[in-house]
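Chapter review: from sequence to fold.
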Amino acid sequence: MAFPQSFLDELIARNDIVDVVGSYVTLQAKGGSYWGCCPFHNEKTPSFHVLPDKQFYHCFGCKKGGGVINFIMDMENLSYPDAVRFLAKRANIPVPEDQRDGTDKLRRRILELNREAARFYYDLLQKPEGAAVQAYLDKRQIRRPIAVRFGMGAAPDSWDALLTAMTQRGYTKAELISAGLAVQSKNGHIYDKFRNRLMLPVIDVRGDVVGFGSRVLDKSEPKYMNTPETIAYSKRRVLYGLNLAKKTKRPNIILCEGNLDVVTLHQAGFDNAVASMGTALTQEQTRLLSRYTKELVLCYDNDNAGQLATQRALELLNNSEFSVKVLSLPNRMVDGKPTKQDADDFIKNYGPDAFERLLNGSENGMEFRMAQIAGKYDLKDDRQRIAYAGEISQELATLENAVEREVYTVRAAEAAGLTPDAMRLEVKRAFRKKMAIDRKKRERRELNPSAVLQPRERGIRYENLRSALAEEGVIRLLMQDESLFPPETPLAPEDFSSPLLGRIFAQLWQDRQSGHALGLAQLSSVLTGEEMSHLTTIMQKPESTANAAKALQDYIAVIRQEKEKRDGSAGIDPLAAAGNKFKETKGYGGKRHE
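The token string follows.
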């Protein structure tokens, strides 16, 4: 996306990174920077660092970092151009819209098409052609006001009704396929993807229709069908109903399995319910939820698949900033037999008040896991009690908080009919074993300098570690002090062993020659998110500012030496040669230029 550099400089200047990040993350000032819990991974101890003087952020936990544009791209799930527009609107700066690229135009076109399609399906539900879907809604006891609130619609029992309607409005067949609304067969025929179905538009928190969920009206398969991954829709990054649930006055958000569970719960007064789109809970979805709540209630179906989904969600949320509870739906007796039920069934069978009582009595994540483990054993049998003690102690050892471990250790002992002291010994043994395993993993990483100093992303790993560390030093010094730029470029991008670092150097040199502002945030348009995160990691490494000019010369000398080796002797293994030689460069345990 080729926005004018002058526009980008103003955009970044008028969107201070502390203000922008602070609207999503609670930040605490410490020295000349700010700290908070990272919004990109679950943590309780702050490792997310925002530097106002350099206008970038970096997480020491997950290593994610970048400038203000990167932050908005990740937090709002936006493309680079849309993140720029988001910040421009925030700062009330007009955007040179004629600069849009093809990808951005297609995404906006698909969002417009999705909205038109949602209106088409909605209108059809009000007509005779939507009678079958309306009958299904009546059968499911879904009232009209709630159907309107969720924008429900009807896909007709036709091969090309939507295709015909949308092409008449100026959309192309290729756009319909790109939006996941039409499908092309092997013989080239194009037809509607959704036919004879209840349609549930998926609306993101910004109000855009990004895709659709659907439900068949009879017993045919597949029962549920969603929009495939498109340029506008990623099921990992969206939660059905969150556009409505974000406005709730309730203190938590309920996570369900199905779209219709969400609809039923909202109709019953639980307007804090959401559902993932046919996938297990993801890191991206927890990041989205963290903007609106710090308390989650897992209300998945009580069948085997639902129990597994609950366990996976608890693993993802373990030691996170969320307070997590589990609402276990009881079985319903049908003809004398216990029958599984979901939230939709429970509301219809027992009513909202009964669900409210369940919600108020929901157990936390550890209580749920303890109950799951206890259910696997006959705690009246001595051998099984011993086996239970071994498994439950491993689970309790995952708790970082000593008070929590003690509380649940006593409960586990009571459940198994053991003394608290005996269970404490088992938990202590399991905790020590876990700590020893973690320590050995950490030591193995620390004893391998190549592994420690290599980029986390495999796609940007260094082939020549000694040269790459010197290349990092050149970039770090030039970004810290613009006065270090020599009159003539001392290096060419091809002198760099790392293509990424060569590109960054070339861009910095070009910006310097053009008189543009230098900064990490300005590189957002030419680097991917992973590349920006790696650059912030480079910038966080120690670098003495004393005698910086001499340090720059030494780094350049190392790069030239390694370039000559590569040109003259292709047989040398650069990583093997790195051994102690990389210590010759400043800032990594070797000589320092003081």
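Two observations follow directly from the output. The two ends are 42 Å apart (CA to CA). Confidence is low (pLDDT under 50) at residues 571-594.
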